[in-house]
Write a structure and sequence with these properties.
D-Maltodextrin-Binding Protein, domain 2; 11 strands; globular; alpha/beta; six-stranded mixed beta sheet; 336 residues; five-stranded mixed beta sheet; ABC transporter substrate-binding protein; 2 domains
Length: 336
């Protein structure tokens, strides 16, 4: 597996301003040229986003009348920066990262909930460490600013600890997992598929996961607000394609797993172990999530909780505006 750091909480907008879009390796210079024009859609390593690969290989974008340049990013951070700067039209990213980009001034719209992480983000510890409270004074590797850093902070908070109570070792996610397997650190925060690597260490175990924090890590299709305003038919076609893809996967499970496992760089059997840890959202679950509410099931509630957390911990410098962020018109218009 190549290095695929996932879900950065800081958008690095200062670097974008200094160096411009051309500094982003692997990014497309194109943007939507109009309804029927080419849409550049970014995605990276996460089980909830691999269905886009199925959509491409099965011709489902074309079936829905949208011309998509599906852009794979080895580095998830690059995809976030590409969307924030306008180098791509849409991206697969978390609510956490979208809020961070919005706090830096990016005008974005969440038009679809792909999934919730329900166990595929984990804090994994060596033999002898059985609970998060046991991490006091221990070396914990995690990529600072990612949602696994966020998960670690949530877990520490629940255990009545803070980041100051551990020795945080900042490493890219793939390197963090490798360092843990090599015995260089006591614990690691990682996401699938790197959790598979981390658990190769004899006696290791997950002591916390995203399953314990429902709604904390939702993943989305995020577009520029400009795309929504100027080319709504293209956005609708992307959302329609997603639900068509889920139907195809349901009816062709083995073939779909083969496609997604290959894109993830893991075996079919390894990919199957990720199933329970990523809850793919149905159309109804999307509608429920977009509805305002007072539980983690609802995006507005989760967003405000995440903003409180990332601003209080310094992961974001200012509260972003939520105006225009949650746009459910396309899910509502999807054929049932």
């Amino acid at each position: 597996m190549t290095s695929r750091p996932r879900r950065l909480l800081t958008a690095l907008l200062t670097l974008l301003t200094l160096f411009g879009v051309t500094a982003l390796s692997g990014c497309s210079d194109s943007s939507a040229s109009g309804d029927g024009g080419k849409i550049t859609l970014g995605f990276s390593a996460w089980p909830g986003w691999f269905p886009w690969q199925v959509a491409q290989e099965q011709g489902l974008f074309a079936k829905n009348g949208v011309n998509v340049d599906l852009k794979w990013f080895d580095n998830y951070t690059d995809s976030i920066n590409a969307l924030s700067s306008g180098a791509i039209d849409a991206n697969s990213q978390t609510l956490n990262d979208t809020l961070s980009s919005a706090s830096g001034g990016a005008k974005l719209s969440i038009v679809l909930v792909n999934d919730n992480s329900t166990g595929n983000d984990k804090i994994i510890a060596r033999d002898g460490i059985t609970a998060v409270a046991d991490l006091r004074g221990k070396k914990v590797a995690v990529e600072q600013g990612t949602v696994d850093h966020y998960l670690l902070l949530l877990a520490l908070q629940e255990a009545k600890l803070t980041e100051k109570d551990i020795q945080l070792v900042n490493l890219p996610t793939d390197a963090a997992a490798a360092a843990f397997v090599a015995g260089q650190v006591d614990a690691v925060g990682a996401f699938a598929p790197f959790t598979t690597k981390a658990l190769e260490r004899q006696g290791s175990r997950a002591i916390s996961s995203s399953a314990e924090f429902p709604g904390a890590i939702p993943d989305h299709l995020v577009t520029s607000q400009k795309l929504v305003k100027e080319h709504p038919k293209d956005v609708q076609a992307l959302v329609n394609t997603w639900f068509d893809t889920l139907t195809w996967i349901k009816n062709n499970k083995d073939a779909a797993i083969k496609i997604m496992a290959k894109r993830g760089g893991v075996s079919d059997e390894e990919y199957k172990t990720y199933d329970a840890g990523t809850t793919i959202f149905t159309r109804q679950q999307n509608l429920d999530a977009f509805t305002p509410g007072v539980t983690a099931q609802h995006l507005d509630f989760s967003a405000n909780k995440i903003v409180d957390f990332i601003t209080s911990t310094g992961l974001a410098q200012q509260r972003p505006s939520l105006d225009g962020l949650f746009d459910d018109q396309f899910v509502k218009a999807t054929p049932q």
